[in-house]
C-alpha cells in the first residue's frame, strides 16, 4: 500500500466525513444553498493566500533543486493563476474583489491553514506535505467522486464550474504529481518511529478540512 | 494610552465577548457545568504545551540577553511548574495524567495555538507578543474581574482554585511583567504602518480565545 | 536620504571594501586569475540555491499579495532563469554541471547565506530584505561602476559576460525594483528603536560579501 | 556502531582536524599565545548567545514533553550559568563585560552559528541536533583527550580553568545526556534516504568548528 493510502486507512472515518461531507453531497446534488457556497468561496480565497505561503515554505524546506522548482511552480500557480480564477468565480457569484479583500478569516480557515504552516515550521518537508495532503489530494478525490456519482455536471448545474475545475484533467494532473512527490518524500524520510505522528498530523488536518466545509453549511 | 490599551480599545466588543464570556460568567457564579470545565481543563493542558513552544520561540526571537532570559524563565515556568499544577488540578477533577496524554486537541485549541506560533514565525517578537497577549493578559484581567465581581471565592466554590490562581498575586505579577515587556517592544518596534496589522492580529487572537471558552460550553 | 543610502552611509568603509574589493578591481581590469573566477563561479552557483530559498522565505514573510507575487517572481527568476544562465556561464569556463553539483560550500558561502536566512527567520520581512540588500543592490552598483570606470567591456574581455549581466538593463531594473521594495518596507516598518540593529545587520552582511570575494582571490 | 560514531567515521579527517587542531594542541601544551585565547573567548561568548537560541529552537522542535524539558534545561543552563561563568573567565583574562558586549561577531562565529540555526529551521529536531553535535560532543572529547594526553592541568597552567571545565564531570555528564538524546532521535528518525545529508551536515559543522579555532590562531 502506498503511504497516502495508509494515511487515509488510518483515519478512514475522518476521511469519509471530510470527502463525503454534507456540504459536498449537497454541492453535487445542486441543493447546496447559495449563501453556503458564497461563504465557502470567500473563505477559500483567504485560504489560498495561506496555501501559497505554505508552498513557499515547501520551496524553502526542499532538499534538492527539482523539489524546489516543483514547489515554486506551485507558488506561482496559486498566486498567478488560481487566485485570478477564484476572483472570477467569486464575481460570478456576486462577490467583488473588494468583498474578498475586506473579508475576515473564519476560525475554521485559521485553524487549518495555521496548523499546516506551523507543522511545516516544526518539522521537515514530509511533515509539511502530509499536513497539506488532505487539501490537495482530497479535492481531487472529491472532484472524481462527484463526477462518478452524478456524471459530468449539466450546463445549468449551479456548481458546475467548481466541479469541473477539481474533476478536470489539469487539477487531477497536479494532484497526481503531488501524490508522487509525497510518496517520494515518504520513501526517503518515513520511519516506524515517526509514523504515528504523521498519521495523527494527517488525521487532524482531515478533521480541520471537514470543519471548513461545516463552516459553509453553518453560515446559512 | 498604552499600546495594550489601544489594542483592546480597537476591538472592544471582541475583548468584552472574550473576557465576559458566558463560560467566565458561569464559572464566577459557580453555575458552570462540571463537564464544561473538565473539557476546558483537558484542552488547556494541551494548550500549555503549545504555549511553552511559543515562549521558546520568543527566546529565539528576542534581540537581547535580558529578553531571552525573561522568555526562557517563561518556558521553564510553564514546563516545570504550571504543567504540574495543571496535572494536579485535573486530578482533583477526576482526570488522570493518562486521560490528558491520550486526549486530542480540539479545533479551537489548534486554531488559537497555531495562529500564535505562526504569527511568531511570520513576524518579529512584537507580532508574537501581540498574538500571545489575549491569553496572558486576558486571564489576569478575568481573574481580577471575577474577584471584584464576586469577592474572593468561598472554600466551597467549585472553581476557587482556578480563580485564585489567576487572581492571585503570583500570576498578576507575571502578567504585569508581560505587559511591561509588550509595551517595551511596542515602544521599540511599533510604527503607524504596522499598527493595523497588529490590531487585526490581536483582534483575531481575542476571537479565538472566545471560541476556546465556547468549546467548553458547547461540549456539554 | 533614502533608507538604503543611510544603510551604506553607516558602514561606508565596509561598503567600499566590498564594492571596490580587489577581486572586483581585477575583474574589471581583466587581470583576475581565471582560477579565482572559477572558484567564485562554483560558489556563486551554490549561493544561488540559498538565495532562492531566501526569496521563498520572503514570499512567506510578505504581508500582502503584491509583495508575495514580487518575491515569488524572484524565486522563479532564480530557479528557472538565473541558474540556467549560471550553468552555461560555468560551462564556458570549463565547469560541468557535475562539477557544480559535487562542489562543497565554502565557509564564506555558508556564512553569508545562512546569515541572511537566519536573519529572515528571526525577524520580519524588513530584516530579511536588509540582509539581502548588499548582494542584490551591491551587484547592481558594482556592475554600473565597472562600466563607468572601464567602459562597456570589449569582446575579448574575459569577464565581459559577467559584467554585461550585472551592468545590463535587465539586472539594473530588477535591482531598482528591489530598492523600491526595500524603501517601502522601511517606510512601513522602520523605527528609531530598530535602526541600529538594521545598520548592524547590513554592515555584517556587507562584510560577509567582501569575504566572499576574498575567498575567490585566496583560492588561487 | 552508534549514530554519532558513524557521523565521525564518515568525516574522520575533518573530525581529527577539528579535535586535534593546532589551537587545541597549543592550548593543551600551554603554548597558545594569550591574545589567541582572548580572541577565542570573546567570540565564544557571542557564540553562546546563538547557542542558547539554538537550544530554544530545540524546545520548539521537540515532539514530546520530556525532550522539551531537556532542551529548556539547556537554554537555562546556558543563559543563567554558562554565560556568567564565561563572563568571569573573561574577567580573569582582562576582558570586561563591556568588552564582550561591544565586540563584533567574526565571520567564523557567524558561519557556524547561523549554519546550525538555519539547519534547524530547514529540517527537524534530528537535523538540528546533528548540526549542534560537533560543538557539544566535540568539546567533551577534546576535554577528555587533553587530560589523557597531558594529565590534569597543573595550577600554573594558563588554560587550566578551560580544560577543567570541559574535562570535568559536570560537562561530561551533559555531553553524555546529549549523546543519548542524539542517538534516540536517530533511532526514531534516521533513514537510509537522509543519511548522506546528515553526514554532510555533520561534516560541514565540523569544518566550521575547525575554522573557529583557526580564527583564534590567525588573530595573533
Summarize the structure in words:
Four copies of one chain form a homotetramer. By secondary structure, chain A is mainly alpha-helical. The first copy, chain A, has one domain (3-218): Heme Oxygenase, Chain A. In chain A, 83% of the residues lie in helices and 0% in strands. Chain A has eleven helices and no strands. Chain A has helices at 3-10, 12-19, 22-28, 34-61, 65-92, 97-102, 107-122, 125-150, 160-167, 169-189, 192-218. In chain A, helix 8 packs across helix 9 (160-167) and helix 8 (125-150) runs antiparallel to helix 10. The mean pLDDT of chain A is 96. At the A-B interface, helix 7 and helix 11 of A face helix 7 and helix 11 of B.
Brief summary of the model shown:
The structure is a homotetramer of 220-residue chains. The first copy, chain A, has helices at 3-10, 12-19, 22-28, 34-61, 65-92, 97-102, 107-122, 125-150, 160-167, 169-189, 192-218. Chain A is mainly α.
Amino acid at each position: 500500500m502506498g503511504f497516502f493510502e495508509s494515511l487515509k486507512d488510518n483515519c478512514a472515518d475522518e476521511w469519509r466525513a471530510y470527502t463525503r461531507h454534507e456540504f459536498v453531497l449537497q454541492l453535487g446534488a445542486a441543493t447546496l444553498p447559495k449563501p453556503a457556497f458564497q461563504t465557502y468561496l470567500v473563505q477559500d480565497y483567504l485560504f489560498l493566500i495561506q496555501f501559497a505561503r505554505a508552498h513557499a515554505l515547501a520551496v524553502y524546506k526542499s532538499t534538492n533543486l527539482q523539489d524546489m522548482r516543483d514547489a515554486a511552480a506551485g507558488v506561482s500557480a496559486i498566486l498567478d493563476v488560481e487566485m485570478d480564477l477564484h476572483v472570477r468565480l467569486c464575481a460570478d457569484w456576486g462577490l467583488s474583489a473588494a468583498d474578498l479583500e475586506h473579508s475576515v478569516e473564519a476560525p475554521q480557515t485559521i485553524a487549518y491553514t495555521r496548523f499546516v504552516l506551523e507543522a511545516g515550521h516544526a518539522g521537515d518537508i514530509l511533515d509539511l506535505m502530509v499536513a497539506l495532503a488532505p487539501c490537495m489530494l482530497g479535492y481531487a478525490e472529491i472532484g472524481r467522486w462527484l463526477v462518478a456519482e452524478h456524471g459530468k455536471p449539466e450546463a445549468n448545474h449551479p456548481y458546475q464550474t467548481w466541479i469541473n475545475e477539481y474533476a478536470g484533467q489539469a487539477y487531477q494532473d497536479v494532484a497526481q504529481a503531488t501524490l508522487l512527490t509525497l510518496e517520494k518524500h515518504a520513501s526517503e524520510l518515513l520511519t516506524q518511529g515517526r509514523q504515528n505522528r504523521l498519521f495523527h498530523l494527517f488525521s487532524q488536518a482531515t478533521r480541520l478540512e471537514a470543519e471548513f466545509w461545516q463552516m459553509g453549511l453553518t453560515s446559512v
